[in-house]
Structure prediction request, 351 residues.
Amino acid sequence: MNQPQRPSPPARRPQRRRGPSASQILSALLGIACVFLTVLTAVFILKNLQLKSELKKAEERHDAAVADLNRQLEDTIESTIPFDEFKAYAGMYNVSTEFIQRFFDDVVVYKDDTIVYAPIDPELPLHDYDWTYLDRTDGLYSYKDDKYTAKLGVDVSRFQNSIDWEAVGGDGIRFAMLRMGYRGYVDGTLMTDPCFKQNIEGALANGLQVGVYFFSQAVNAEEAVEEAEYLLEAIKGYDIVMPVVFDMEIVTESADARANTLSPAERTVIAKAFCERIAEAGYDPMIYGNTAWLLSKLEWKELQEYPVWLAQYSREPHFPYRFSMWQYTSAGKVNGIQGDVDLNLCFASGW
Prediction:
């Protein structure tokens, strides 16, 4: 028999959920902000600690470096040898004067019979070139600073044989110093360089500025004037704008060379006589020589009125006194000249 069913309970109405109150939201935001500030503060503290640590390490490294430098200085002082001992070793091992000169700024170092350490004479004028402006590209040196712009040149004689002067000029060469002649070192005969005429005409025809030099073996002032007159006759009619040079050297090929035994005073008188005659004729006289010749074979103070053509084969000159031209190599290579050739820089602006 079917029993009567109970009626179902009435369905419940769903309750509406309430959102967070404004105070709850504000509280949560403040909590987040506090966490953020806490993290930010922690990061700042860590960074500060890291910077302090790095600063301390940097100070420690600096202190260590200073201590190391002090130790090196002490070692250097302890290992420094006396000057006389240094000179003995330099002579024993034939050290180059260019290398030795790096250790001294109050002496001029050069080789004569021995290595000479000549104190710089405060009465002689010094040059004012700055060798940081010297360019050595491809062996063809150049120099330019706020005061000087050097020009590149060659000096030649019969030993260079026939020269293609057009090719020489095209290779950046702007001037040529030509050997006009020489005196025999035994019998004293005056002779003209066999290539002088073709060289002077070829150089001038191709736009090069020209100067000349004479290899002297005069033994007195009269012979010096004779050499000057011989040269002046040979250059008559040519456009000589570069200097006319007195060149006397020790002749190593013969023990009997007539001028080898002259004293510095005698050579000075001879050089003066030659240069005075050249100046009287309206040309610019000049004296050629290396450091040893200028400082030990002449009385150099007596010749200060004449410009110097310095011969010094080095990366840069370490001759401290005033000079106007620098012969920097005897092994230069120039288009139009077979074999090696002397190369020069002229610093004087008047030529």
About this structure: The domain at 124-346 is CATH 3.20.20.80 (TIM Barrel). The first strand starts at residue 107 and ends at 111. The first helix runs from residue 22 to 79. The mean pLDDT is 88.
